[in-house]
Design brief:
alpha/beta, nine-stranded mixed beta sheet, 9 strands, Rossmann fold, single chain
């Protein structure tokens, strides 16, 4: 595994492993690139697997000013340019999927396939109750002076399945504790106005949807709605998994992803 730096404003950190068609993994709002380690190693025999820290996360820098999902999308294009990737397979979970749904209309020629995991196409797609819970667990406590160490137990409980292995819950806890408050709050604000629902009907690449059976934040019913709107899409629901389906059920997640990508591997290419 190699960690590379993507130059520019801000500088980005990205893990790279393997040799083959490029696959890029984008983490969720409470995570970082290490959340994808099981996927990177599982695919590295046939693919060049990459996982970044989004701006403001992990070892990536950030810049002052408001956050827009367009900023993340432009950063992803910058990563592809730096790696001399013409088209990539793109995998995003939760916030990562929101970035991809912003990226596709802007950079459609750079997309080989999309894998969208445990996500929504618009903040309004969640129920009023879920939107209120989402913000109550995240923004309000931080604004009142609490820390991510204070917030992490409740956030972990809200994101994992009832039978989540303790070591996975502990890994998620550490990801949340490592967050930086200001970038996180800026991204939360951008999330509340996120709406890519119009783009759903325009996606013209193969799409794999993956949801956890016990995902309470973005339940599989959202995936059922999405698969009806996307021209070339398929949906898999992973039994027993919560919102972080790639962490809780890596073997099942990786098998679904490999079955989707392998027949389409040559759609992605370096220059």
């Amino acid at each position: 595994m190699q960690t590379i730096r993507i130059p520019g404003e801000p500088e980005l950190a990205c893990d790279v492993v393997g040799d083959g068609p490029p696959v890029v993994f984008l983490h969720g709002i409470g995570g970082n690139r290490t959340n994808w380690s099981r996927q990177l190693h599982a695919l590295s025999d046939d693919f060049t697997a990459m996982a970044w820290d989004a701006r403001g996360y992990g070892d990536s820098g950030d810049i002052d000013g408001d956050r827009r999902f367009r900023h993340f999308a432009d950063d992803l294009a910058r990563l592809l340019d730096h790696r001399e990737v013409e088209k990539a397979h793109l995998v995003g979970l939760s916030m990562g999927a929101r970035i991809l749904l912003t990226f596709v209309p802007l950079y459609s020629g750079r997309v080989a396939t999309l894998t969208l995991c445990d996500c929504f196409s618009a903040f309004g797609a969640m129920s009023d109750e879920k939107r209120e819970e989402f913000m109550a667990l995240r923004e309000k406590p931080l604004r009142s002076g609490r820390t991510f160490t204070d917030l992490a137990p409740a956030l972990v409980e809200s994101l994992v399945s009832p039978n989540c292995p303790p070591e996975i819950a502990a890994e998620l806890f550490e990801s949340i504790v490592a967050l930086r408050a200001e970038p996180y709050l800026k991204t939360l604000k951008a999330t509340t106005v996120f709406d890519a629902s119009a783009a759903m009907d325009e996606i013209d690449v193969p799409v794999q949807l993956i949801f956890g059976e016990h995902d309470r934040l973005t339940p599989p019913s959202i995936g059922e709605d999405m698969v009806e709107r996307i021209a070339d899409a398929r949906l898999n629901v992973i039994d027993g998994a919560g919102h972080l389906s790639n962490l809780e059920a890596p073997d099942e997640f990786n098998a679904i992803l490999r079955a989707f990508l392998s027949p389409r591997a040559d759609l992605a290419r370096y220059r």
